Design the sequence.
């Protein structure tokens, strides 16, 4: 018998976070979450997303042993923006037992229904800055620090429980052009388009030497201007909710300290205002595995070693954003024309793109001139909760009602 309990103590919160690590402890492709980061993520005082989100965490127990976990979340800002009544499920993990996955998702459905929601969607986090989407292809590919990994049985459970497709994302493996031109693709086109765009729209690239320099720029307002580019660029994308000032400060404080400033590229207009940004980071996946998802007592050494002394040959392409009025004007080419030579100099062999909606043609098209391939797919599932929850033994075939 499966029992669901709500996380209410610090001990239970740590158990919730570490269950993922224990479930994937011997999996060579899974990358554990940082315990310290996750404690802040679920701290209502520290995570700015709680200003417009409500959430509860749940553990599935059997014979006093944890066999699953899930977060039930309502992002009221996103629901208002998109005029929906969605409850999200996130950070879901479970053993290969349909009774466990059913109990977890039934709990989210009931929790959402009690709060007036009529559809459950996920996996999603509080915002787009959290990992999202359940892996449906690419189970033999190493995960990243900013994405989710799951066993192949996860999506099978979702279909058996009557969940259908909401949206899909893809991730690409992009080969860095090489001196022997074996993997150049049509890299030369980026150079030509970048130069044309720079002259036509009077643009230039701005680089920084340190995180302190970024934070201090324009009296501390520059970071907010850069993230405003992200807000405006991502506004039309599925489920996006605009980042507020406190969220921006939180992300800047958390991530800028780990960035190699060579991999942060910002494009400005003639008035020195940011209109596009691209940021990458040497992959920390292997370092996080070695650290066992904990900064202390010795995890910090593996992280620092990977950042400053011997980085992996993979660059995670974390974020690319261009203001809507500058899209389809070659501005992406300016970003790549700057980042690619630096990636070559730093010895990166290939890059891992951030998740991209399969229907986002603008985002998909920016890789057209490079040697690349889709190597992972992930899905956001959905299910109406206006009807009673699926009963045991029912809905054993996929429900086809994709949006």
Sequence:
């Amino acid at each position: 018998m499966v029992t669901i309990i709500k996380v209410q103590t610090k001990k239970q919160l740590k158990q919730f976070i570490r269950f993922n690590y224990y479930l994937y402890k011997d999996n060579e492709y899974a990358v554990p979450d940082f315990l310290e980061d996750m404690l802040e993520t679920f701290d209502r005082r520290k995570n700015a997303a709680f200003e417009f989100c409500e959430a509860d965490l749940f553990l599935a127990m059997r014979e006093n042993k944890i066999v699953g976990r899930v977060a039930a979340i309502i992002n009221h800002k996103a629901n208002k923006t998109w005029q929906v009544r969605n409850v999200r499920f996130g950070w879901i993990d479970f053993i290969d037992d349909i009774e466990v996955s059913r109990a977890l998702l039934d709990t989210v459905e009931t929790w959402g229904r009690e709060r007036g929601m009529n559809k459950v969607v996920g996996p999603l986090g509080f915002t787009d800055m959290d990992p999202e989407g359940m892996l449906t292809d690419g189970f033999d590919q190493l995960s990243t620090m900013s994405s989710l990994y799951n066993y192949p049985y996860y999506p099978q459970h979702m279909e058996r429980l009557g969940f259908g497709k909401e949206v899909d994302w893809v991730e690409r493996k992009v080969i860095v052009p090489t001196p022997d031109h074996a993997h150049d693709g049509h890299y030369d086109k980026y150079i030509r388009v970048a130069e044309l765009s720079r002259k036509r729209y009077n643009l230039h690239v701005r680089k920084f030497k340190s995180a302190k320099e970024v934070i201090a720029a324009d009296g501390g307002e520059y970071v907010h201007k850069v993230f405003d580019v992200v807000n405006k660029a991502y506004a039309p994308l599925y489920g996006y909710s605009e980042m507020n000032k406190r969220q921006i400060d939180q992300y800047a404080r958390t991530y800028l300290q780990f960035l190699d400033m060579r991999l942060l590229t910002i494009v400005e207009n003639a008035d020195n205002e940011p209109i596009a940004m691209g940021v990458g980071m040497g992959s920390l996946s292997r370092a996080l595995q070695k650290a066992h998802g904990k900064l202390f007592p010795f995890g910090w050494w593996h992280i620092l070693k990977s950042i400053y002394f011997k980085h992996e040959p993979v660059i995670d392409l974390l974020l690319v954003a261009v203001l809507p009025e500058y899209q389809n004007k070659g501005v992406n080419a300016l970003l790549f024309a700057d980042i690619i030579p630096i990636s070559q100099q730093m010895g990166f062999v290939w890059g891992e793109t951030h998740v991209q909606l399969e229907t986002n043609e603008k985002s998909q098209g920016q890789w057209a001139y490079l040697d690349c391939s889709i190597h992972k797919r992930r899905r956001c599932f959905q299910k109406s909760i206006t009807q009673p929850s699926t009963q045991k033994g029912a809905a054993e075939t996929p429900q086809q009602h994709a949006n």
